[in-house]
Design goal:
The complex is a heterodimer of chains A (about 270) and B (about 375). With about 270 residues, chain A is mainly alpha-helical. Chain A has a domain at about 65-225: MetI-like fold (Orthogonal Bundle), CATH 1.10.3720. Chain A is about 75% helix and about 0% strand. Chain A has helices spanning about 1-35, 55-60, 60-95, 100-110, 115-130, 135-160, 165-175, 180-205, 210-215, 220-230, 235-260. Chain B is of the alpha+beta class. Chain B has 2 domains: about 10-235, 3-Layer(aba) Sandwich (Rossmann fold), CATH 3.40.50; about 240-360, Nucleic acid-binding proteins (OB fold (Dihydrolipoamide Acetyltransferase, E2P)). Chain B has 8 helices and 20 strands. In chain B, strands 6-7-8-3-9-10 form a 6-stranded mixed sheet, with helices on both faces. In chain B, a hairpin with a 4-residue loop joins strand 16 and strand 17 (about 320-325). The model of chain B has no long low-confidence stretch (mean pLDDT about 85).
Chain lengths: ~270, ~375
């Protein structure tokens, strides 16, 4: 008995150790960046001298203000566009059966298999040479939407395969016009999927460097500024910026989690 | 065409799905206050027909009239119908009250009238006090009642029901059958009821249409169908459980003698059948009698066969007796339980009157 117990303990210890190592591997860089964004000198001394001056400097740099504004703008527009497109695409594919369903799904998610860099360069070439619109926010939004549609499509598809489209028929029989069917029955059931796709698209486009970079030229976004700044050496302001963005993303996810846990919002299907 | 008299009228409706003719030239009408059953096996086109009436499927040919209006080209939401679906299809994110009021909300009825109608229908289906529950908090029978209430709340011109009892257990089904007849009698809205269950159709409806391969085999009063099936299919579908196939060897008066694998039986002569033709003869088990071999038959006209009793299945008010007759075929007879002490393995006599069965010219060979 005792032998088994001690063997168990060793096994348990290894498991815990592995788990801790994994978490350190995953999260230490992020935590470290947050840590250094609050210290006066990132090299030494220890114990650190805490400071907020990098955040103050970040706030005072007008580049970053413009970049933030542009990033949010690109993020929002991309999220709206890709969610709209992806939702319509999924509904169309699921509601109206066609033998082209498989190829069409593949077509929608194909941007996932193309490196962002290529999407960036090719949309730049297309936009500049064919449409004659290079270096515009609009072309960055369109290019980001290409990629975000693929992600949104997957997120929404995963949820909507469970939706019973006969529910729409029932609503229609009871006097609902198509728009009312969507508002009264379809949307209240599928909105968590749409919200999920919206957030994913926003975060993708907000953080995107390689697609936006090629399409924007001189127009700054947060990632392009950070990229540009790196060329002059690593500056503590960048750590502050990274921490802010991490905090932002984290609070979105934490907020969603809170809503689910407290039941303030019912996500998804109240199944039979 | 004068259609205003009918609550529902279909004129020569057809529907083609690829090579399959799901509904083939169907015409019928349903009157106010009627309980009309569409009975048929799966794939007979009855659900397609119901969907055409609802507007969920378009009619390839022909026309649909509801309450005297031609609605053939109208979408479902402009038809003024109610419907009860097989899986209830209650809206999962809405409460019972919201589910039931949905048709009223779509009609933009004032809130006070909505409340009035909701109270009326909740009373009718005995679901008062459940307004704030969600569908996933209801039992199967309660969901069924909510689905019915939603179908009836707007007092539609017609209520369509698509196998509404198929997902309920036997007890609940019996209860709901009684309830549905009560609702229907109370509100005077015609019900069109699709089912594959002949018992349900006969219990609930006034009139029954038996469907096969997209066509109506027979339409009529349920007793008429039961007592005088027009085709072999109707006879077999309405629970005539003994099927006898044989060749006519002689004809005399209204009777033909058929040869059923060595046993000669008198049957009523079907129209247009002569000596040498094949005949299908259907016998309803409860019209037959069973007794000890030495008993005398009750009438001189009765057909009487000797048989060996294979099994007895007690059903309560009657028992099903399974016998093997002399040519090795099995027959089933429903008679009072516990007849004169006959037991399994006994030699028995089976009897019936030839005119109690239904004979049809057999299609094809045999």
């Amino acid at each position: 008995m005792a032998a088994i117990n001690s063997k168990d303990i060793v096994l348990r210890a290894i498991q815990v150790l592995l788990l801790v190592a994994l978490y350190i591997f995953l999260y230490f860089p992020i935590l470290f960046i947050t840590y250094v964004s609050f210290v006066d000198n990132i090299i030494w001394p220890f114990p650190p001298e805490w400071t907020l001056k990098w955040y103050a400097r970040l706030l005072s740099m007008s580049d970053f203000h413009v970049g933030l504004k542009n990033s949010v703008y690109i993020g929002l527009c991309t999220a709206v566009l890709s969610t709209l497109f992806a939702t319509s695409a999924v509904i169309g594919l699921l509601k109206y059966r066609t033998r082209w369903r498989g190829p069409m799904i593949l077509l929608y998610i194909s941007p996932l298999f193309v490196p962002g860099l290529l999407i960036g360069i090719s949309t730049l070439m297309f936009n500049a040479n064919v449409l004659g619109m290079s270096g515009k926010l609009a072309s960055a939004i369109v290019a980001n939407t290409t990629e975000a549609i693929a992600f949104s499509f997957l997120v929404i598809l995963a949820q909507l395969v469970r939706y019973d489209w006969r529910m729409d028929e029932a609503a229609m029989v009871f006097g609902a016009r198509p728009a009312q069917v969507f508002r009264e029955v379809t949307l209240p059931t599928i909105w968590p999927a749409i919200l999920g796709a919206f957030l994913v698209s926003f975060i993708l486009a907000f953080n995107n460097l390689e697609i936006s970079f090629y399409n924007l030229g001189a127009i700054p976004t947060l990632p392009t500024i950070a990229w540009g700044t790196l060329r002059h050496g690593i500056k503590p302001e960048l750590f502050a910026l990274a921490s802010v963005i991490n905090l932002l993303v984290f609070s979105i996810i934490a907020g969603l989690f809170f809503l689910i846990q407290t039941g303030l919002v019912r996500f998804g299907y109240r199944g039979e | 065409m004068q259609t205003s008299a009918h609550a529902l009228e279909l004129v020569e409706v057809e529907k083609q799905f690829g090579p399959v003719r799901a509904v083939d030239n169907v015409s019928f009408s349903v009157e106010k206050g009627e309980f009309f059953a569409l009975l048929g096996p799966s794939g007979s086109g009855k659900t397609t027909l119901l969907r055409i009436i609802a507007g969920l499927e378009s009619a390839g040919k022909g026309s649909v009239h509801i309450g005297g209006r031609d609605v053939t080209r109208k979408p479902p939401y402009a038809r003024g119908i109610g419907m009860v679906f097989q899986d209830f299809l209650l809206f999962p994110h809405k409460t019972v009250g919201e589910n039931i009021s949905f048709p009223l909300k779509m009609k933009k009825m004032p809130a006070a009238r909505q409340k009035e109608q909701l109270d009326w229908v909740l009373e009718l289906v005995r679901m008062k006090g459940f307004e704030d529950r969600f569908p996933n908090q209801l039992s199967g029978g309660q969901k069924q009642r909510v689905a019915l209430a939603r179908g009836l709340v707007a007092r539609p011109d017609i209520l369509l029901l698509d196998e509404p009892l198929a997902n309920l257990d036997r007890e609940l089904r019996k209860e709901m059958e009684v309830e549905m007849r009560r609702f229907q009698a109370e509100i005077d809205i015609p019900f069109v009821y699709v089912t594959h269950n002949q018992e349900e159709a006969l219990t609930l409806s006034n009139r029954v249409a038996v469907m096969k391969d997209g066509r109506f085999e027979q339409v009529g009063d349920k007793l008429e169908l039961y007592e005088a099936p027009a085709t072999a299919f109707v006879a077999s579908f309405l629970g005539l459980n003994n099927t006898i196939v044989g060749q006519v060897t002689a004809q005399e008066g209204g009777l033909s003698t058929i040869d059923w694998k060595g046993i000669r039986l008198p049957v009523p002569t079907p129209e247009g059948v002569g000596v040498g033709d094949s005949v299908q003869y259907y016998l309803r088990s409860e019209k037959m009698h069973i007794g000890p071999l030495e008993d005398t038959p009750e009438g001189a006209d009765a057909t009487r066969l000797a048989a060996r009793l294979r099994d007895i299945i007690f059903k309560g008010q009657y028992s099903d007796y399974f016998v093997i007759v002399e040519n090795g075929e099995e027959m089933v007879i429903s008679d009072v339980p516990d007849i004169k002490g006959i037991t399994i393995g006994d030699q028995v006599a089976v009897s019936w009157l030839p005119e109690d069965g239904f004979a049809f010219a057999a299609k094809g060979d045999r």
